[in-house]
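re: that chain from earlier
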Amino acid sequence: MMIAWIDSLAFIVFLIAWIGYTSFARRKAKTTNCIARVMHQQRIMWMSQVIGKENRVGEAALLANLERNIAFFASTTLLVLAGVLTLFSQVEKLETVIASIPFTAPPNHALVQVKLGLLVGIFVLAFFQFTWSMRQYGFVNVMIGAAPLDKSGTDTNLIAYAKQMAVVQDQAAHSYNYGLRSYYYSMAALCWFFNPWMFIVASLFVVYTLYQREFNSKAVVAITAAQSHLEKSPLHIKE
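^ sequence. v structure.
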């Protein structure tokens, strides 16, 4: 199978965009306010409040709601996977459709299968992330159930326990976020069916969109401002 240099370049740019942005965002989140950083602080505060509550039905309901959202994406991912796998038996028809679209590159039979394989890989990865996120939220439920009551909020061991609950919940949220990112990058991968240049542009656009939403969005500004008010509260637990 001969693959044009532009297709190889487009695929390399896609991988660099995905892996590079993931690594960049993880490092930058340690020193810059972003969705991941400020939400981690919110989770610490949330879990610290749980220790002092005798009735934790509300927390269970909130976590159940988060799990339902993730379960929706996990089941949807399986449906999408089934659809993509079905296309492997309809490659010729898919090539005919692609060839009929203006400004698209001439379809290559083997390359089309590679593109479908890329989509399969993306959604398999997304499914793993979503299901791991669900399991971790289940772990948080167990930890909340095991947490003893401390209305005074002075037990240092329970304060440390609350932080660890927040860490587990944070990891669950990260897995959910990685699954969502897979959906974003799958949109870029779809562009490869039409034109490798479009694939490159779409990959860079996804990176730009993710950066703006995670670091420069109005939600980040609002949550950061809210966090500053929490830090002034005597109930705030510093890391």
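The radius of gyration is 22 Å.
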